[in-house]
């Protein structure tokens, strides 16, 4: 059982702070939380989430345990129900102070209605809910994102006699996390029990899909970013898992998927590199599948045989810890079988060395050729500080160090911020270079969780080896309760041959805090001919801690000089220099997406005075810097605000750095700058070989006009023959520089230049229609960027005012709903 204080945002403040808050301007954005125990209360929260005036708000619905007959709510019916960012979280007690994540305790009963239909405009999170009694003709829980760049998280849910469908074909940038769900008893109706169509990525982790009479257990129609890991598909009609490259053309060509550590009978897909360790035709030994009990018997081949992944849930469908034993179980349930006891070393004191010390536990683990487990049981109150007199030995064998085992420790349960209590602190006192140093071979794995590390002049944690290392729920700098944890030189450093490490993960318990480093918060780099590649930095707090109101910046938030890394869903703020830096020709093929750079998550309080704290947390130089010939990277769907210099700065001569669908706003200088020289005028140089992103010309806006939320932009572009993606952005006000910025990304259109004289630019004009579902357009300004087929992206265009067209101003031609006054 996990404890989640409903009042985590409802702070009691001293009088002097109340006075200060009354003088502060509340931000228009907010996070609204509801403790819901009835259908009417649920509908009130849904109404708030659907209100266009709350387009920047996050509505979190804490559902008390019980059955909700939702047949009369706006969740039900084939009509599209559009919602702003919405979290539906089941499993709470009567005052929402304690939560047990188990979908069987929080039921959405559709009263026989044929469909539960949600169209999110922003991110959607559904967790800990059982859906049942959804009848014909659809038998369906349907999610259709209504805008670009939406993350859909469906976690720890149960779908009983109904299918779960996510359709992203009408928009772009839809990313699905389908994690730790149970799907069963779907009748035969011509469809599959789970259908995933048109998404940009699908992470399907730790699910149990069994006993469905539908056409297939799961159908995925895309080859883009599909991963199926740790799932059980058993006793389904047709394929348990079916991945098709393109379902629209009828050829049923198998699609690409990373397919590993699954239990199944029949599949259709094309396994890509990294797949394997599956158990085909291995009976998972459910306790009683016929009775709907899909828990695992102790002898199941799925027990302690899966692989930990950064997307996996922190608890199973019974609310138990997701890993009991040497490895995670496959499927949605975790058997209570612990096979780690013979290889466990327990730290029982804070001594620098000797029996019961952390140093001795590491020495013992290094002497064990097999995997070791280090736990903590130090007597006394939290926190316990291990103050080192000399450097610890490098760790050379596979090991899991679990500081959550220390009595008094509590992992983070907040969806934003961090409320963890880490009761073990490793202190370097400013005289020791490295805190923990892992130097295992490629066949080993390092797993660290629940510890605070500070005061090391080099790196708090150095990963120089291993494959699939896991760094989850730790803290580097900041505060543990009232105890200050000093910053490190670098918080976390990945180097040498560390490959495919996960720093953080999708679940709140996996979030790391990295604060107060004098150098880099997190660095990924090389030594000589050895490079750390293919790593993920996910969902961490970098430059702040706790409720995110404290500034504890690093020198640079994240610095990467290698290839194939992913940085997503992090808060990266308060850096003395850049938020994110990609440096050197080795920095290529990286993806930076869905991060808040220069903005914290939104924190609101309701007592003693309602107030929303500012999310202003600027990185002092650039929000994101690409330099020294870094090339062919993707920077997508980030919020890059409040930068002390440029929002995004691209220097050197690197090409192919794609900047797509980012919100870039409130930069001290330019939103996007190529070559570090400020505004680059459009020119006739068709090649610009020495400029970053080939100095691509930006589009020119000729006219921007339309109605309240639907409009058009007309413009032109001069460049070489190619097909260009023209991105449309809107901002509330003109930028302080001649060209614009992009507060809100609207959509993209195509502009083609079919021919151009040798060595010269060609010319084209375009007209792009767009919708603005989250903001009314009257009085705003538009700006554009261009992206060529190689990913080279221009600076922002000069901005132009949006004009309300006369048709819409006067409400004629059936345009009343689009009426807008200039």
Provide an overview of this structure:
The protein has 822 residues and is mainly beta. It has 3 domains: 268 residues; 258 residues; 127 residues, Sandwich (Immunoglobulin-like), CATH 2.60.40.10. Helix content is 4%, strand content 37%. The chain has 4 helices and 71 strands. The protein has a 17-stranded parallel sheet that branches. It has an 11-stranded parallel sheet with strand order 30-31-33-35-37-42-47-50-53-58-61, with helices on one face. Strands 1-2-5-8-11-14-17-20-23-26 form a 10-stranded parallel sheet, with helices on one face. It is globular.
Secondary structure: number of strands:
71
Between the first and last Cα atoms, what is the distance in angstroms? 54 Å
Q: Shape, please?
A: globular
Radius of gyration: 26 Å
Which range best describes the helical content: under 10%, 10-25%, 25-40%, 40-55%, 55-70% or over 70%? Answer: under 10%
**Main beta sheet, described?**
17 strands, parallel
**pLDDT average, as an integer?**
92
Helix and strand content put the structural class at: mainly beta
Given as residue ranges, the uncertain stretches (5+ residues, pLDDT < 50) are: 1-30, 809-816
Our count of domains comes out at 3
Q: Hey, roughly how much beta strand do the residues contain?
A: 35-45%
Secondary structure tally, helices: 4
């Amino acid at each position: 059982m996990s404890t989640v204080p409903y009042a985590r945002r409802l702070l009691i403040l001293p009088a002097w702070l109340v006075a200060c808050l009354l003088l502060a301007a509340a931000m228009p954005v907010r996070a609204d939380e509801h403790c819901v125990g009835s259908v009417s209360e649920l509908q009130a929260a849904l109404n708030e989430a659907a209100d266009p005036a709350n387009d920047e708000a996050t509505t979190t619905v804490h559902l008390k345990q019980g059955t909700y007959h939702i047949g009369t709510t706006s969740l039900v019916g084939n009509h599209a129900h559009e919602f702003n960012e919405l979290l539906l979280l089941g499993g709470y007690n009567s005052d929402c102070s304690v939560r047990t994540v188990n979908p069987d305790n929080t039921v959405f009963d559709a009263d026989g209605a044929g469909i539960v239909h949600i169209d999110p405009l922003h991110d959607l999170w559904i967790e800990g809910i059982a859906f049942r009694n959804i009848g014909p003709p659809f038998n369906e829980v349907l999610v259709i994102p209504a805008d670009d760049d939406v993350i859909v998280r469906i976690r720890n849910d149960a779908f009983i006699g109904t299918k779960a469908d996510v359709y992203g074909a009408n928009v772009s940038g839809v990313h699905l996390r389908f994690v730790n769900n149970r799907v069963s008893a779907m009748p035969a109706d011509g469809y599959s029990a789970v259908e995933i169509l048109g998404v940009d990525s699908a992470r399907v982790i730790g699910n149990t899909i069994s006993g469905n009479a539908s056409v297939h257990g799961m159908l995925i129609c895309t080859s883009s970013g599909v991963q199926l890991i740790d799932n059980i598909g058993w006793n389904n009609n047709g394929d348990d898992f079916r991945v098709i490259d393109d379902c629209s053309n009828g050829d049923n060509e198998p699609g690409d998927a990373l397919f590993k550590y699954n239990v199944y009978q029949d599949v259709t897909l094309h396994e890509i590199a990294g797949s394997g360790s599956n158990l085909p035709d291995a009976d998972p030994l459910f306790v009683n599948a016929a009775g709907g009990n899909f828990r695992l018997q102790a002898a199941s081949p799925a027990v302690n045989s899966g692989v930990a992944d950064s997307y996996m849930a922190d608890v199973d469908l019974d609310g138990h810890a997701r890993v009991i034993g040497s490895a995670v179980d496959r499927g949605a349930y975790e058997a209570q079988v612990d096979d780690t006891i013979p290889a466990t070393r327990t730290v029982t004191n804070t001594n620098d060395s000797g029996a019961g010390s952390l140093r001795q536990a590491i020495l013992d683990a290094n002497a064990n050729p097999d995997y070791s487990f280090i736990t903590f049981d130090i007597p006394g109150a939290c926190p316990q500080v291990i103050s080192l007199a000399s450097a610890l030995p490098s760790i050379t064998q596979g090991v899991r160090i679990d500081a959550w085992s220390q009595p008094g420790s509590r992992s983070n349960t907040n969806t934003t911020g961090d409320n963890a209590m880490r009761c073990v602190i490793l202190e370097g006192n400013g005289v020791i270079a490295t805190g923990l140093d892992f130097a295992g071979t490629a066949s080993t794995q390092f797993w660290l969780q629940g510890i605070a590390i500070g005061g090391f002049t080099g790196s708090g944690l150095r990963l120089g080896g291993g494959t699939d290392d896991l760094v989850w729920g730790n803290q580097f700098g900041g505060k543990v309760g009232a105890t200050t944890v000093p910053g490190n030189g670098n918080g976390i450093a990945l180097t040498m041959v560390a490959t495919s490490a996960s720093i953080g993960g999708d679940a709140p318990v996996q979030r790391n805090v990295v604060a107060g480093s004098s150098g880099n918060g997190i660095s990924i780099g090389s030594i000589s001919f050895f490079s750390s590649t293919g790593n993920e930095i996910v969902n961490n707090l970098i430059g702040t801690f706790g409720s995110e109101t404290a500034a504890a910046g690093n020198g640079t938030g994240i610095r990467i000089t290698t290839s194939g890394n992913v940085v997503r869903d992090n808060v990266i703020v308060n850096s003395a220099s850049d938020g994110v830096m990609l440096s050197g020709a080795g920095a290529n093929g990286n993806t930076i997406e869905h991060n808040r750079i220069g903005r914290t998550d939104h924190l609101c309080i309701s007592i003693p005075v309602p107030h929303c704290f500012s999310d202003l947390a600027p990185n002092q130089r650039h929000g994101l810097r690409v330099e020294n010939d870094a090339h062919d990277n993707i920077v997508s769907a980030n919020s890059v605000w409040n930068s002390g210099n440029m929002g995004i700065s691209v220097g050197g001569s690197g090409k192919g750095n794609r900047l797509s669908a980012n919100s870039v706003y409130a930069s001290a200088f330019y939103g996007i700058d190529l070559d570090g020289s400020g505004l680059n005028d459009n020119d006739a140089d068709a090649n610009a070989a020495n400029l970053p992103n080939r100095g691509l010309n930006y589009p020119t806006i000729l006219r921007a006009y339309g109605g309240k939320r639907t409009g058009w932009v007309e413009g032109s572009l001069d460049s070489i023959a190619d097909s260009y993606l023209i991105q449309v952005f809107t901002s509330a006000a003109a930028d302080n520089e001649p060209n614009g910025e992009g507060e809100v990304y609207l959509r993209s259109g195509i502009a083609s230049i079919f021919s151009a004289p040798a060595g010269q630019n060609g010319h084209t004009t375009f007209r792009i229609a767009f919708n603005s579902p989250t903001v009314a357009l009257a009085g705003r300004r538009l700006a554009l960027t261009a992206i060529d087929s190689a990913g080279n992206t221009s600076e922002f265009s000069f901005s132009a005012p949006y004009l309300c067209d006369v048709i819409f101003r006067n409400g004629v031609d059936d345009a009343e709903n689009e009426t807008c006054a200039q």
